[in-house]
Amino acid sequence: MIIHRDGINYPMSVVSFTDDDAFKWVRDRVQIEKLSADNREEAWASVAQSIGVAPGTVENIDRQRRKSLSSLIRDKIHEHKIKCIRAEYLRLSHELAIADRGGSTSAEDDLDQARAALQEAQKILQGARR
Q: How far is Cα of residue 4 from the mean position of the Cα atoms in its chain?
């Protein structure tokens, strides 16, 4: 089944993405963003902008004030998660291509770990496409 959004066809995902999954993803994103932001408010605003929701929504999720999400917000968070996984997949693919051409000084173990991470990301993406 195909869903239509903004003139682009996306395969509908049959992967279960619950409110708890969305809460965890947002909290993880906030923790990552806090490493580079000056304060929590900037981290919330940055994560909210990347997901496409209000900063207060991200703040409430981070402070565990929300018990549930509307399907619209949950879908936005799910789309953001898939987008981030795809970006990481492309980054790892590019890194491996460079390493395979001999442009890397990484140990063979590092390359094996990168290949394993790439395969894991590919499995996740394939599951999200179904």
A: 21
